[in-house]
Amino acid sequence: MALLLKSLIGAAMVILISLLSKSKYYYIAGLAPLFPTFALIAHYSVGSTRSTADLRETILFSGFATLPMISYLVALYCLVGYFRLVPSLLMACIAWGIAAWILVTLWGYAHGH
Question: 80 near 88, Cβ under 8 Å?
């Protein structure tokens, strides 16, 4: 049941983004994915199954996890001026992946994981 609810929330966000992108407020489609839908699910899941210390570490890591998103946005902003949309999106995703890999690696070293 919980998995179904999570799926429905994800589907609702996709529909909302699609509707917003077609409206005169198309730019709000860039804000909708940043609503903490999945953060809420992650924090609830960790908070209900792990210790408060583990939840606090997850929350702190979530804050640093905004860095890969910023990497994606900066890369995409720069790339769309030089490449078509799909290659720009793919390269921006690669930038996100590299930034996420660096973050996870550094986090592991700093926290002994």
Answer: yes
Distance CA 104, CA 28 (A): 30
Question: What per-residue confidence (pLDDT) applies to 34?
Answer: 84
- What pLDDT does residue 56 have? 97
DSSP collapsed to 3 states, 55-113: HHHHHHHHHHCHHHHHHHHHHHHHHCCCCCHHHHHHHHHHHHHHHHHHHHHHHHHHHCC
Q: Are 69 and 96 in contact (CB under 8 A)?
A: yes
- Rounded-to-integer distance, Cα 110 and Cα 107, Å: 5
Q: Which residue has the tokens 């809420």?
A: 40
